[in-house]
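Structure in, sequence out. Go:
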């Protein structure tokens, strides 16, 4: 290598090191941008910007209620962790309107309800202003938190105070967006590591167990009639089947998804992973919009697709695999269809399947049945196979 080539290589290494350092610093900054830190200082900023005696922030939780979490200038803990449903008090009215609300004397105001008068009296609060903290993503406008300012005793919050608190609310919304992005990045990293572990276990331990099982079956079919040896080989085959089932359970557990992740995204990732491993084209077809499901149903549908893809990879000798997702009969259905060779055995709905795939699908069928769903494995006339799972919605009562 010439001196100029060495110099160029050294510069490339230096630039790569600098890039890695910058990325590490960025990840470190993002890691502290969580929801708590995004809102903790907002209460004090509200109090100072509005010239108020107290400022506090209520976070909108998954149930849709606001919960007062962060306070500045408070004298007691009476307002700490108070739940404010939509429509109740100043904060509930802000949630309902999506706009600022102000009163000159909280306990006598006719424009609000008065479920919280006792708590407000303990803090000796009179005039109060509440402003929505709005999701600043495009075309959203959803209220994600409520910012409050309060005076002790009667008074007025003018337009300048409203605008000042709205500016603080806009800054808090941007901080929340960065916090959510950082959290999504961490979730993505965890999901990527799970997929890496899945692929590693599948390609190493799974392949080894499959090979051992195949060799044991070959030995049993070719050995002379020796009852003792055949019994020992039978036990070994049972042990291998049990180990394969345990591995399959581990792979299913690793594929479990949080409810925040969209089901179509998860299924598309499994299709891409399957295609990368096998070279067999696999695509996701979504048949219309699918309502959000709870984490248990989401994970079970993902596991069904994972099982169908694993079986197609191991047994079907397929040229193409199609995964479909859609709503059927008031529930959500996934299907994995391949154009491979037919498999033998018997499935959950009386349909045939292979000895190797039966245990995993029976497990899925049992879990689906507990939720009022069903699993089927159907062979097409041209030799292909389709695995289907249908689960009712959480509130269907099926």
């Amino acid at each position: 290598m010439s001196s100029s080539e060495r110099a160029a290589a050294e510069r490339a290494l230096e630039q790569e090191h600098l890039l890695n350092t910058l990325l590490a610093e960025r990840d470190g900054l993002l890691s502290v941008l969580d929801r708590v830190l995004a809102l903790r200082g907002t209460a004090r900023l509200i109090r100072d910007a509005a010239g108020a005696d107290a400022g506090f922030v209520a976070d909108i939780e998954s149930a849709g209620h606001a919960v007062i979490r962060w306070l500045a200038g408070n004298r007691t803990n009476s307002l700490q962790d108070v739940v404010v449903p939509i429509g109740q008090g100043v904060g509930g009215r802000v949630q309902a309107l999506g706009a600022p609300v102000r009163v000159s004397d909280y306990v006598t105001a006719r424009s609000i309800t008065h479920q919280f008068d006792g708590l407000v009296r303990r803090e000796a609060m009179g005039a109060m202003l509440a402003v929505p903290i709005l999701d600043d993503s495009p075309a959203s406008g959803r209220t994600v938190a409520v910012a409050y300012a309060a005076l002790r005793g009667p008074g007025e919050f003018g337009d300048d105070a409203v605008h000042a608190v709205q500016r603080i609310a806009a800054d808090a919304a941007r901080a929340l967006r960065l916090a959510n992005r950082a959290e999504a990045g961490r979730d993505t990293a965890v999901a990527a590591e799970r997929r890496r572990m899945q692929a590693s276990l599948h390609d190493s331990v799974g392949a080894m167990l499959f090979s051992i099982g195949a060799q044991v079956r070959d030995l049993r079919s070719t050995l002379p009639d020796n009852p003792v040896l055949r019994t020992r080989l039978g036990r070994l085959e049972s042990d291998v089947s049990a180990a394969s089932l345990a591995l399959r359970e581990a792979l299913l557990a690793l594929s479990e998804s949080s409810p925040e992740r969209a089901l179509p995204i998860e299924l598309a990732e499994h299709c891409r992973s399957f295609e990368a491993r096998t070279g067999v084209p696999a695509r996701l077809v979504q048949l219309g919009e699918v309502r959000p499901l709870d984490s248990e149903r989401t994970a079970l549908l993902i596991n069904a697709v994972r099982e169908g893809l694993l079986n197609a990879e191991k047994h079907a000798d397929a040229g193409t695999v199609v995964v479909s997702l859609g709503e059927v009969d008031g529930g959500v259905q996934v299907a994995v269809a391949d154009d491979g060779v037919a498999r033998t055995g018997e499935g959950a709905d009386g349909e045939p399947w292979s000895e190797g795939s039966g245990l995993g699908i029976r497990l899925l069928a049992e879990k689906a049945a507990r939720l009022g769903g069903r699993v089927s494995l159907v062979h097409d006339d041209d030799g292909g196979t389709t695995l289907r799972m249908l689960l009712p919605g959480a509130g269907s009562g099926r």
